[in-house]
């Protein structure tokens, strides 16, 4: 799915199961932004990891190009969990890591 020729914003650029597999194998990292959002919401990383591992393909919202790095896409999921409504943005980097870019509560319809 992470084919550089793919430009769809309505389909994921990464396989959700692969993103989850990386996380289960501890091949992931949170960006500074995601860590700040977690601190602001008083949510710990382990709790968000549990939420991410429970995401369904049907919760995919959109794919978007990175604002900082042209040609790099980020998949966004809108998730409803015991924590409430969350907006989770992730990508897979070339070294086969899942990068958790943003995790914040709520979203506008």
UniProtKB/TrEMBL annotation:
<protein>
    <submittedName>
        <fullName>Uncharacterized protein</fullName>
    </submittedName>
</protein>
<dbReference type="Pfam" id="PF15723">
    <property type="entry name" value="MqsR_toxin"/>
</dbReference>
<dbReference type="GO" id="GO:0044010">
    <property type="term" value="P:single-species biofilm formation"/>
</dbReference>
<dbReference type="InterPro" id="IPR038493">
    <property type="entry name" value="MqsR_sf"/>
</dbReference>
<dbReference type="InterPro" id="IPR031451">
    <property type="entry name" value="MqsR_toxin"/>
</dbReference>
<dbReference type="GO" id="GO:0017148">
    <property type="term" value="P:negative regulation of translation"/>
</dbReference>
<dbReference type="GO" id="GO:0009372">
    <property type="term" value="P:quorum sensing"/>
</dbReference>
